[in-house]
Write a structure and sequence with these properties.
Structural class: mainly alpha
Keywords: Membrane, Transmembrane, Transmembrane helix
Largest sheet: none
Distance between the termini: 16 Å
InterPro entries: DUF6737
Shape: elongated
Number of strands: 0
Number of domains: 1
Protein name: DUF6737 domain-containing protein
Organism: Pycnococcus provasolii
Pfam families: DUF6737 (PF20522)
């Protein structure tokens, strides 16, 4: 797997299917959602609807991509890597090694 992992089979067996199990405390869903609400709240202080709408759109897009799409793709990659997909195994190893 490109030198990232010495024993790929053992590594993939021990990798959790849930990406949030490898993320640090500051990068958990509850912190991401809380930060998003804080950003929307701060944007709404001046009572400018357009600013609140722009901030909300950005936050909701980030939530969708990071909490939904990214987490789902990670899980699919782990399953594919365990089934022998080398590209998926490299992807998983890259993500996991960033947090270990």
């Amino acid at each position: 797997m490109g030198g990232l992992v010495e024993e790929p089979e053992e590594f993939l067996r021990d990798v959790p299917l849930n990406v949030w199990d490898i993320k640090p405390p500051w990068c958990q869903p509850w912190t991401i959602v809380s930060t998003g609400f804080a950003i929307i709240g701060v944007a709404s202080i001046p009572h400018w609807t357009w600013l609140t709408a722009i901030a909300s759109l950005g936050v909701f897009t980030w939530w969708y991509l990071f909490l939904g799409v990214y987490a789902s793709q990670y899980k699919e990659a782990v399953i594919a890597a365990r089934a022998g997909d080398n590209e998926a195994a490299r992807f998983v190893a890259m993500i996991v090694s960033a947090y270990r």
